[in-house]
Amino acid sequence: MQRPLLVSVFIVASCGLAYELIAGALASYLLGDSVMQFSTVIGVYLFAMGIGSWLSKHVAGNLLVRFIQIELLVGLLGGLSAGLLFLLFTLHAGPFRFTLYGLVLLIGILVGLEIPLIMRILKREVAFKDLVAQVLTFDYIGALAVSVLFPLLLAPHLGLVRSALLFGLLNAAVAAWALWLFRAQIGVMPALRAQCVAVIGFLAISFGFAGAFVSLAEANLYNEDIVHAESSPYQRIVVTRQRDETRLYLNHNLQFSSRDEYRYHEALVHPGLAALPGARKVLVLGGGDGMAVREILKYPQVDSITLVDLDPRMTDLFSKSPLLSELNGGALNSPKLKIINADALQWLEQTPEMFDFVVADFPDPSNHSLGKLYSTAFYRLLKQHVAETGRIVVQATSPMYARESFWTVVATLEAAGWQTAPYHALVPSFGEWGYILAGRREYRPPTSIPVPTRFVTPDALPALFHFPADMARIAAEPNRLDNQNLVRVFEREWGRVQAH
Amino acid sequence: MRRRDFLTGVSATGLLAACGSKAAPPLPPGILTGANDVLGHRLRKPDFPAPTETRRTTVAIVGGGIGGLSAAWKLARSGCNDFLLLEMDAEAGGNSRAGKNEVSAHPLGAHYLPLPPREARATRQLLAELGVLRGDPDAAHPTYDEKYLCHAPQERLYTNGYWQEGLWPTLGVPQSERAQYVRFQEFIAELRQKRDGAGRRAFALPLALSSRDPKRLALDRITMRDWLLQEGYTAPGLHWLVDYACRDDYGTSAAQTSAWAGLHYFACRDGEGQVLTAPEGNAWLAHGLARATTGRVQSNALVFRVEQGRKETVCDVYLAAENRSIRIICRELIWAAPLFLIPHVFAAPRPEWLAAIKGAEYAPWIVANLTLSSAPQTRAGQPLAWDNVLHDSAALGYVVATHQQLRYAPGPTVITWYRALHEESPSHQRQRGASLRELLWGRDAWAAEVLADLSAPHPEIRELTKRIDIHRHAHAMIRPLPGRLWSGTRSSFESGRPGIQFAHADVSGLSLFEEANFRGVLAAERTLARLGVSYASSL
User: Fold this and answer.
1) Which of B149, B407, B410 sits opposite A345 (nearest CB)?
2) What is the pLDDT of residue A216?
3) A370: nearest CA in chain B?
4) Which of B140, B281, B379, B515 could cross-link to B505 by cystine, CB 3.0-4.6 Å?
5) Does B272 touch chain A (CB under 8 A)?
6) DSSP letters of A401-463?
């Protein structure tokens, strides 16, 4: 009689801590700021357990029956908690925080009832000092077991939704076990038995279907809400939204986060364009999201911008979707802008046009096709389309994570006969990011930025052009079409970053 | 052996397909092209109309392949413009011709030029003239235009279900066999450096500049395969690579190729395997040479009789498009057509010529151009390269015509598939009365063969293929069989005769661009000397 109840304590304690951890983790994933979420969830949970303990004195009648009923209720609520909260969050079906803390409070109260009840049940058979010692020992051991298992095994392998269901099943199993074990004392109780079967059945079925639910939903859970997803002939375009933050992913690679893209695009455009007061014709290669165009349009003297992006779906999306065109300030609908959906290399080969400023904002050189856009041949071709006093700027991956790649692009531009001015900027979503200005003449940073900016200001400029020791120039071979060494270097460097 | 396995495989799949409930999907459309064999074969039973017109020219060049075009190029560069080039086909270019469709230009034959060694001066001069070689053409390692240098990745090999980088089989090859690769490569590296007492390379390109050390020339008496075995090279991967190289460059297996020729392939260049190529294969080189011939090429013109007089040479030429013949009288003749035609055309061929031609064999080639809706997928291993070789195939793999295009977007492409029929020889089979089997297959049989060959690495190839055009070269390359290079048979053609020079790669015995170019320029320079025109030598 005594030993089974102590085993129950162990299980019940495990489950109790598990719900607390799951709620905390879920809140951190969904709302961010994990310290805040964990402390408030744990605080509310402990407080609720206090309420439960206090309430336990009012529990009367057959304590075993009450214990079984409480277990079933904890199992049901706790088991479904993660799935319920997640659905609520993704469907925007109700006040999320209110439900979160309400659920935490409810589960906490029920869990708070469990231990006092068990102690009251056992009180009849065990001396008080032994009772307290034994029950609390198993309580803490159970807590330890879960606190170790949860981050190492459960969260990564089962995920939050299924972990919660698993613990719910354990609670319900304790109830069923108790019902069978104490059948002599409490007699046959068909209703209670039916409740047990119903709860276990429901949780088991939910667990079975959780796979589908999880793959559908937990993928989002770890990332963000997908507000747009499509596959164009060239790439997979996914736009996500998490509270007020919008992100664009191309082929699963983050292109920008609305939270800090202004840093990326201001750094891309202003150091170059602010130094070219006479610039009238600007070319943007890549950059179908229109953010670079938005920055360029700030310059009144620029009277024509040509945007060459391969994918018409990208330029369509960012000129027509209200959410996205709000981000680029409607830049893609500007009368100064001409959009050309073409392969930049082929278009440059056949166009006679000349430009004062060219922005080459291509995806990183992760394969041989993209590597061509960072080759001496491409930079020579580009030179034929840049005015004598004009300049180009190239996004050139991270000088921090892919240092040799970055300096390879610098060496490539120099081998193609450009004078370079490499610089970098911190974009929190990406880390330290690298850019290269190139022209026929030496670059001098502008003394003023004549347009409104939030990040690139005249006093901030010198620091951008200074490379600390860990990003400083290293020897690198130019990237030619016949060797494409950049693709290999880039693969090696980012492979190393991803391995961590 | 491999080929037999392959053929058994093909017939087995054919049988399976025939037994299956579903009928095989129809073949993609396409046509069969090739040298004008109907016209050419009329030389065997000449019944051409008598000439109705006589024209005079200082120099007549018979044949518009790389040899003939190179001769014309050198004459024109030296200010000698009174020449006429006679080409049997509708277009000059020989093995270096190209096709073109809405997707891309694509080769019909030769598709690349390895970076030429310093000895190939004429070829380097041509490249400099075309702006592809930059700076001093005689530099040890000149720079080349990136547009023509084969873009990375250059080559990959499909073996054991995996695309590996490079052509040396490495996947699952034991260390002991790799040690043989290293030993072979070190031996070749040493050969490249070797110079004889006269400063000549052991294996030079053009081969006429090679060392005449009897020890080296003796290599011409055994086959490449026997040489490998003699030297203790047994590694199957090494044998495969050498055999592949022989089939690729000479249209002969390693067991047929002269060891001198086999080693020449590896030791004559020092460009570290870099090649120049373009979507249209080597046609850009042919066009570069042909710029000099504008207005002086007579195409669809079959020379059916040549008679050398005391001061002049008479060529009777059948103009197929007009169904009439003309007579061309020239002071100097440059014969730049395959040498096996000589007995059929010359009124009085010299006995030493006939002796030299006896025993010459030509390798037939099949070249298939497949127009694909998109590039084939890579299931495992390295991404699509320019040259994609299949280890377990009788064919030589395929090159991608759009590889050199400056574009990064995926899209439709043309791939060119090659197969040297190294076991077949038109003349010998005919003499033995045997049928020519594969050479005479039609378009559909070849299209089916190509698809079957490519379906191992690319199961989706049939769905991707919108069109397959087959180009047949019945006499594509002279074969460097043992004894053909250094037993003296070539010398009567090498030296030429007063009034007649020979300017075909056949004179060298190796069907290589640099050899044809060298022979053409050499014939032109000798002709210029005889005409008393001053020139700066390109050799």
Assistant:
1) B407
2) 62
3) B408
4) B515
5) no
6) TSHHHHHHHHHHHHHTT-EEEEEEEEETTTEEEEEEEEESS-----S---S--SS--GGGHHH
pLDDT-based confidence at residue A350 (cuts at 50, 70, 90): very high
Nearest to A399 by CA among A471, A493, A469, A465: A471
| Cβ–Cβ gap B410/A310 under 8 Å | no
Chain B partners of A233 at a C-beta cutoff of 8 Å?
410
Domains in chain B: ranges and CATH: 48-92+299-357+485-531 (3.50.50.60), 173-269 (no CATH)
d(CA B344, CA B335): 13
Of B152, B406, B408, which has the smallest distance from its Cβ to A370's Cβ?
Answer: B408
Residue B134 bridge partners (DSSP): B143
- How many whole angstroms from its chain centre is CA A59? 45
Strand, coil or helix: what is B5? helix
Decide if B151 and A310 are in contact by the 8 Å CB cutoff: no
Residue B2 sits at the vertex; the CA angle it makes with B1 and B5, to the nearest 5 degrees, is 90
Distance from CA of A275 to the nearest CA of B (A): 31
Residues of B in contact with A369 (CB under 8 A): 408-410
Dihedral sign of CA atoms A354, A262, A256, A367 in order: positive
**Which of B427, B474, B444, B505 has its CA nearest to residue B34?**
B474
With a cut of 80, say whether residue A351 has pLDDT above it: yes
- Ramachandran region, residue B194 (left: φ > 0; alpha: ψ -120 to 50; beta: rest): beta
A480: which chain B residues are within 8 Å (Cβ-Cβ)?
146, 149
Please name the residue that has the structure tokens 């303990």: A53
Report the candidate in B256, B254, B249, B280 with the shortest Cα–Cα distance to residue B106: B280
Residue with tokens 């200074």: A466
Q: Residue B357's pLDDT is what?
A: 93
Query: What's the pLDDT score for residue B413?
Result: 96
CB B10 within 8 A of CB B2: no
3-state DSSP call for residue B366? strand
B501 φ, ψ (degrees, to nearest 5): -120, 150
Number of Cα atoms under 13 Å in the Cβ half of residue A447:
0
pLDDT > 90: percent of chain A: 54
Q: Are strands B275-276 and A225-231 parallel, antiparallel or unpaired?
A: unpaired
In chain A the domains, ranked by start, together with CATH numbers, are 2-222 (1.20.1250), 260-499 (3.40.50.150)
Q: Which amino acid is at B235?
A: A
- How far CA B260 is from CA of B198, B219, B235, in Å, comes to 19, 5, 20
- How many contacts (CB atoms, under 8 Å) link A and B? 57
Nearest chain B CA: its distance from A314 CA (Å): 15
Contact predicate A178/A8, CB 8 Å: yes
Determine contact, residues B243/B235, Cβ cutoff 8 Å: no
Q: Provide the pLDDT confidence category of residue A335 given band limits of 50, 70 and 90.
A: very high
Give the nearest partner residue to B408 out of A349, A373, A377, using CB atoms. A373
Q: What is the mean pLDDT of each run of 10 residues along chain B (539 residues)?
A: 39 42 76 86 90 96 97 96 95 95 96 96 97 94 93 94 93 92 96 92 96 95 97 97 96 95 94 91 97 92 95 96 96 97 95 92 94 90 94 96 86 95 64 58 93 94 96 92 93 94 97 98 97 95
Q: How far apart are the first and last CA of chain B?
A: 43
Tell me the C-alpha to C-alpha distance, in Å, between residue A247 and each of A62, A226, A237.
Answer: 56, 9, 11
Is residue A404 within 8 Å of A474, Cβ to Cβ?
yes
Residue of B146, B274, B408 lying closest to A369 (CB–CB): B408
Catalytic residue from among A33, A361, A459, A482: A361
- State the complex-level ipTM: 0.78
* A139 included as an active-site residue: no
